[in-house]
Amino acid sequence: MRPLRLSMQAFGAYASKETIDFTELGAERIFVISGKTGSGKSTIFDAISFAIFGRANTNDREGFSLRSHFAKAEDLTEVTLEFLLRDVRYLVCRVPQQDVPKQRGEGFTTVTAKAELYELDGEQEKLLATSVRDVGAKMEEIIQLNVDQFRQILMIPQGEFRELLVAESKEKEAILQRLAHTHFYQLIENQLWDRQKELEQRVRLLREKVAGITLGAFDEEALVGKTTGDLEMMFSERIKAERETGAAMQIQVDLAKQKAEIAAKNVTLAEGRLAEWAEFAQLRAEKETLTEQFSQCNQEKRVVDLARKAGAIIDQDALCLRLKQQLDEAKQEQQRALEALQESEERLTQAVLEMGQIKEVEPSYVAWIKEKEQLQAMEVKVTRALGLQQDMARDREQKQALEEKLGLLQAQEKDCLASSEYLVEQVRLVHETRVRHAEVKQEHGEWKQQEAVLLSEIDSWEQKAVLQAELVQLEIDSRIVEKASREAEMRSAELDAKWQKEQAAMLAATLVDGEACPVCGALDHPKIATQSAIVTKQEVDAAREMKIAKADALKTIAMQVEQKRWQIEQIPISMEESLAELKAKQLEYSRVLTEKEQERLKMEAFFEETRDIEDQMARNKQQQTELAVLKGKQQEALEVIRKAVDTAATTYTLLLENVPEAFQDTAQFYKQQETLTAQIAAFEARKKSVEAEHNSAKEQQYKAVSTKEVTEKAAGKSEMALATQRTIFKEIMVANGFADYPTYRQAILTAEILEEKERWIRDFEQQYHFVSERLKEMEARLAESKKPDIQGLQQLDREAKQEYHEKAEQWMAQKETIRKITALSEQFLAYLGETSEAEKAYADVGYLADMARGKNERRLTFERFVLATFLDTILLRANGRLKKMTNGRFQLIRKKEKSKGNVQSGLELEVYDEYTGLERHVKTLSGGESFKTSLALALALAEVVQEMSGGISLETMFIDEGFGTLDPESLEMAVECLLETQESGRLVGIISHVPELKERISTRLEVTATNHGSTTKFFTQE
């Protein structure tokens, strides 16, 4: 991280806005900050630290104490830092919480802390975070250091320069963990520990499974004292014995199956013989039924015979029916011919009457023709007059249209003038609105900024409320777990006591009077312990494990409670206003922002509507000119039309002078002409129609007379033919045995019914024949046989099947036993192998986990070992500079001896003194020696961290005082080390009053104190 520009306002010793531009250093990488005591030199470091972390570089400067006493009441305390990190420019702005005078009334109001972080790309600003909490988190993410680590490595304040040097092992660990990213090694430790517990659980489960399998195969008594090899042999012998038993059972099953098959075959044969006896009885009953149906069969035969005879004469009957129908139709035709003749005579009479009426109208017809000829003579004048009349009407319409258009143009001209005045007013409004738009936009931004600060405060309140609720729940859970832990501890102690008593009772059972007690050696045993309750070793171990688990759970939840409390303390909130007040204020801010946004959108919509207002004014002016031209043209055209209308009216009057007044109206003229034409055409058409009707009526009368004669002859012929065929039919009917016509009609059957009756007769005769023959066959077959005892045979069959099923079930049960014991044997061997592998893995992982967690002779964890290596690398670099600054006298070494007790060790530092040849603690160094050692360590730490941790950029170092403790020679050596450091590109800033240091370093930042606040300026020696 390299600072580029630092701006301070009302901060510390700086009253007005003071900007330090570090880019003025140019190629210089080391400078001295000098000035009188209290002028504000350390304040520069405080400002940089506050801008980055929200905290000053010293612990005694926080919050409101940062405000300058020289500042004006209306000036807010704020710090802005622009810095470069990994070739990316950032800008961070912070305002601490402070009291400012109220704008109205007396007293002060508290301004809450604010922070903003931007990424700069040219002139573009990208907002990364807006709240104090978010900016703090983002800055730690970017720089990857917290404020304590920052001032121990990069910005070392007064009195704290040697803090890293003399820090205890645990304190150094916290710094080095972050710098070396050793949390990965902590994860490895945790993963090994988790893996150890997983494997331990797996071994326990596998052992339980092996025990469960053996208990499932053998009695518990048979397993006492058995080894794994014994168990394998027991499984093998058990499987062999079960298989031999199964083979014997299979032989018995086969014999029972053969017996059951023979019994089933006997039942099947008996059932077949019984079926034959049943069929014989059925055939006898069926023959008796068929014999009873013989009379019905004979009756059906007689019906069929009569139906066949009726069928032989049915054609003659049909012929008579057709002739009867023809006779009826001939008589109907004869009647229709008589009616047609009567109708034709009436039609002819009417036609003669209409012919007389036509002759009466003929004089009027002649007069109509004469009048039509007169109208045709006048048609030329009337037609021309009609044309003039149409022209005049068209001209009048055109004249009216021109007058209307002229009026419209005049109205448009008037509207155009009104629009011109409106547009001028709109232009004025646009200019006023633009001014207001800029004001609203600025006001919206200010309100938005205030809302962002307010939302940040609300977020902090709500987050703290959530964490407090979680803390309450954790405290409740802690009390529950604590109670469970006490109960588990009491239970474990109780079972331990019972177990000890039980062991004593077991030992007492072996005592013999006169023999020495194996515990105390006494020969007398006056009060022997008795067994009160049986407690197993497994119960005691389980209770101990439960106690340990509950204790671990209690520790875990206690850590969670402390962590939650720490999280609550890390959330800064203002107690000036409650959450409800903040939310009410936020609602007010939102309402104001909404109003501002609506006003802005309304004005932008107005801008959109009036975007082309100037173009509209130009178009309006052009439209006025065009309307004036059009109005002149319309007036000229109107004058021409008026003259044309007057000329046409004069000509029209002259044409109609010789035309009768009744026909001067062209519509009346053409109407009369059309009426005459229609009357003439109607008379001619009627005359033609009446003549045609007269001729048609005469022809129809002639045809009707002829048709009447033909129909009379046809009716007589049909009547004679019907009489002849009826005589023939009666003779045939009597010859076939029918007494009368109804008897004949009753005997007629349809083809389907006749066929059905004939089929029934055939089926009856065939069935009777079949039953008779089959009955003779069955009598012959069953003549010498008896009915079998089917019930006895079925009972034997059931007994044989029952025996077979019982044998088969026993055999299947035995097969299942063999399968189960075989499966248990296979599972036993498989789990035995898995248990062996798991125990081996558990031993290996357990060893690694114990070593990584510090269960070794040095009590050094894996992460601390890596940190020690990291520290050794730093010391290697630091000793090079330290030897140079001390002329080879001092060398830093890491203390490797194990600390007393369980205290973690391995990061303490000692110094080796060449003068004495002894090692001693770094706290024994003098002030100057300590400064040189701390400087060497800080420079080396920055170099090693930069090289080993690609994500951390340590391009800057600031040192506050310390050089005054050095003699001239040591000072020269320290300056040489710093100059070597700045050659690598690192920026080094030193606060010092030592004149030799100012002379040795060419560039200085001079801080000048006045009664109005301090100012700064860079100076460079030539």
TrEMBL record:
Keywords: Coiled coil. Residues 280-354, 385-412, 579-633, 673-700 form a coiled coil. SUPFAM superfamilies: P-loop containing nucleoside triphosphate hydrolases. GO terms for biological process: double-strand break repair. Belongs to the SMC family. SbcC subfamily. InterPro entries: P-loop_NTPase, Rad50/SbcC_AAA. One of its GO terms (molecular function) is ATP hydrolysis activity. It comes from Listeria grandensis. Residues 5-207 form the Rad50/SbcC-type AAA domain. Heterodimer of SbcC and SbcD. This is Nuclease SbcCD subunit C.
